[in-house]
Design brief:
The chain is an all-beta fold. Helix content is 0%, strand content 42%.
């Protein structure tokens, strides 16, 4: 059953990795709190990202074997796209003025024209 309280999360960084640590109060047996984490990782070629998760409680747990998990994600090379916009003749505009913009696409990663 989902719970209403929100976790308090923080990013911990050390020399080897980065960890997101969340504290959740008042979680009972059978309760669940979905957590979503998003990020971007630059990768060249094929890479593997590994992640682990663990639950630590101050209460005794009769089934400590289900308190952790791990996953691996295969990352293939891709393209990160960015579109910049600048106004031509940067001057004060008033209502009904015409503005001209220059759009500048850039990318990182694989060349999008070679796909």
């Amino acid at each position: 059953m989902p719970v209403d309280n929100q976790p308090s999360c923080r990013l911990q960084v050390n020399e080897e990795n980065q960890e997101i640590v969340c504290s959740i109060e008042g979680l009972s047996i059978g309760d669940e709190i979905p957590l979503t984490f998003a990020g971007q990782v630059p990768a060249a070629g094929i890479s593997t990202l590994s992640g682990t998760g663990a639950v630590i409680s101050q209460c005794r747990d009769s089934d400590a074997g289900n308190n952790g998990g791990a996953l691996e994600l295969k990352v293939t090379s891709g393209t990160g796209m960015k579109l910049g916009k600048t106004r031509v003749l940067e001057r004060l505009l008033v209502i009904d003025d015409t503005a001209t913009f220059t759009l500048s696409p850039t990318y990182s990663g694989s060349d999008p024209e070679k796909k």
